[in-house]
Amino acid sequence: MAAATIRCMATTGQAVGGRGDARLTEQGIYNAALRLIDADGIGALSMRKLAALLGVNPMSLYHHVPNKAALLRGVKNLVAAQFQPPVDGGSWQEQLHRFAKDFRALAHRHPNLIVHSLASPDFIEPEDPFWTGLIDILSRAGLPPTQVAPIGAVLSSLFSGFLLAESNGTLGRLAAMQPSAPGSGAPSNADMDGADSFQFAVQTLIAGLEARLP
To answer: Using one digit for the tens of pLDDT, what is the confidence trace for 84-93?
Structure first.
């Protein structure tokens, strides 16, 4: 996206002195930072580079975000808010499958941010749509109330671990380690891509949950 377009999206109102400093908004800064991360990775993000992209004085950013850590938290929250759990009908199994598929799709839209965020212990917050949506699905599945949050934590960890392994190449590398015994009947690596592997993982998790239901 052109820098001029990003500057426009990060500001509102009237400019002062021909610059965008007076028009900056916190939301606009997060949007611009996300685009920078998507294009060049977390390592490319700095307050100075972001200010240059927006065409403002670097110090003006600090009126909205105190430091880079706060900037990254804001970007993470921005992406988290993009996730919308399924609200339509269907069985809890169907909803959990769509939930997981949509979460993977969001991760693929912002892989640089997701890989960085997965290393943080507060990657998923209690108020995040991901967590509240997952808890709602598990509750409607009929799990005992005392098991909903612990099982939600396990599923969150498994989803996150899969996405990390997929993004850093571990999944593909392990999938290529086929048995060498003749006639083993093992599928080739081409038989199962990332989407197929994720679907298999989700189906396995759903089967495990079904076995725990009273």
So the answer is: 888 777 999 9
Q: Could you please report the per-residue DSSP string of the chain?
A: --HHHHHHHTB-S--BTTBSGGGB-HHHHHHHHHHHHHHH-GGG--HHHHHHHHTS-HHHHTTT-SSHHHHHHHHHHHHHTT-----S-S-HHHHHHHHHHHHHHHHHHSHHHHHHHHTSTTSS-TTSHHHHHHHHHHHHTT--HHHHHHHHHHHHHHHHHHHHHHHTTHHHHHHT----STT--PPPGGG--HHHHHHHHHHHHHHHHHHH--
State the CATH class of domain 85-212: mainly alpha
Name the segment(s) of the chain with CATH classification 1.10.357.10: 85-212
**Topology of domain 3-79, CATH:** Arc Repressor Mutant, subunit A (1.10.10)
CB 186 within 8 A of CB 178: yes
State the span(s) of the chain assigned CATH 1.10.10.60. Answer: 3-79
What's the predicted TM-score (pTM) here?
0.79
Q: What are phi and psi of 115, to 5 degrees?
A: -60, -40
pLDDT of residue 123: 83
